[in-house]
Amino acid sequence: MAALGLLAEFTVSTKVGVFTGGNHSLDPARLRQAIEQSCIDLRHPPGLVLLHNPETSLERLDDTRAPDALAEACGVLINAVSTGLCGGWGISTWSPRPVLAAVTPLRPDVLMTRAGLTVGAPVLTLIEELAGRLDSCALWGMSPFGGDATDPAWREVNAWQFLRQGPDCTDLQAVFRTAYALPEIERVAVGTGDPSHLRALVEATGLEIDRETVAAYRDLLATARPAAR
């Protein structure tokens, strides 16, 4: 895209916080360097930089250190916005509990979390609590298929029941569109390796969610007994 001069036609979002070997870090110097490298690689400041899965690092810290570590890491992203290295900043988290426990008053532009039918009631509640704590940030979703859009289970869940149109879409389209309501999110990150798959998901954004059915589902999730172990 950079070579073809197309970056201006897109809003590019990226993440920092995971380094060589899959090592997570909240070290301010490493985060700053990663943001600067993103600008070099893209030949353009990204529109948004997300702090990637900070809970992995926070879980290694005691309760007294974790809030400062998270605040310092977020401060790097805030400074990157103010100095023109990116257009906005946010937090991306798979497990919101450690972030919720450590977060101090912040105003990120975006909170990205997992979304969809694989997210249980406790995590949905934590996501909504964290979003509320972060003062009206936009809420984005990821992993609407739990990491595997080819899982045969998606043909069995009848996710079209969460839509007003009924079963006049594919199973994957129904699952994907439902993810926008579990929790309530504005955008969903998906893979782009298969153009036909991506096209189907883009088309699914025009489907209408049945809010009453989703609310009933949330009530069932909240009252369901944990599975026996």
From TrEMBL:
Residues 9-98 form the NADP-dependent oxidoreductase domain. This is Aldo/keto reductase. It holds the Pfam family Aldo_ket_red. It comes from Actinomadura alba.
